[in-house]
Structure prediction request, 307 residues.
Amino acid sequence: MEKGTIFDIKEFAVHDGPGVRQTVFLKGCPLRCQWCHNPEGLEARPQLMFSRSSCIRCGKCMEVCPFGAAAGQKTSGSPDETGMEETGAFFPGSACTACGACVSVCPMGLRQISGKVMTSVQLADAIRENSDYYAALGGGVTFSGGDPLMQGAFLLEVLEQISDLHTAIETSAYASPQLFSRIAERLSFIMTDVKLMDPGLHKHYTGVDNTVILENLRSLCRGSKPFVVRIPLIPGVNDTRENLEATAAFLAGSDSLLRVEILPYHKTAGAKYSMLGMEYHPGFDVEAPLRMPQSVFEKYKIRSEIL
Prediction:
């Protein structure tokens, strides 16, 4: 039996597929998009998240942390390999094993573990608890992330156990065509990102080439499975007429494409990075005005909307 790592299950989701839905967020993503707003979904392993700004520096976390003793119970100093900061707020950094010992002792409730390991049966059972309710609202369950395809074998096992439900996925489509095809045929609905058409720019801004992404997208365009393309629109990165024209031309003529959804960049994208001991330094101007040439899609007779 496969096991997977889940970092959230959102109830009453209205933008993650038809109707009202549950959205299951799986950890792990093969891309490193410079605008990612869910950094807790990047790594496949469970991680500690810590809200530093409200820390009262009581030291209780250091007392129970196996790396706290090694730090000599410091309360100040420059950042080093111990994770100590000048504020005195303790974070073990990359050494953290997400054991959770510090979570229960924090008097302010500022610590949490992002990522819970579950078997496919456990997740399928959790989904079924409210599945009748969501079905009555024309919905079902959506798998998001991260990217669910990173846990492909686990996802396949879950899908086999809920084959009677309406199932959807939000994905980058970065996976082998064989895995993508196996998962796609078990889904009711697909939402896939298209970030950039130019392979060089795609690799620069996401860390990976887009060849396999476009191959999987091409199979969707030729197939019969209903799908939506989502474009996270980033200022100065992919909001050019040239990029959107190339995207529209690639998608044109697909009978299975329902629409293109445009998700404008939000300046709060970097809000959660510090909670993971990460820094947010995107390689684009977050203050730049965002261009939205929707007329490009109208030209190719593709329905589009801004979310």
The radius of gyration is 21 Å.
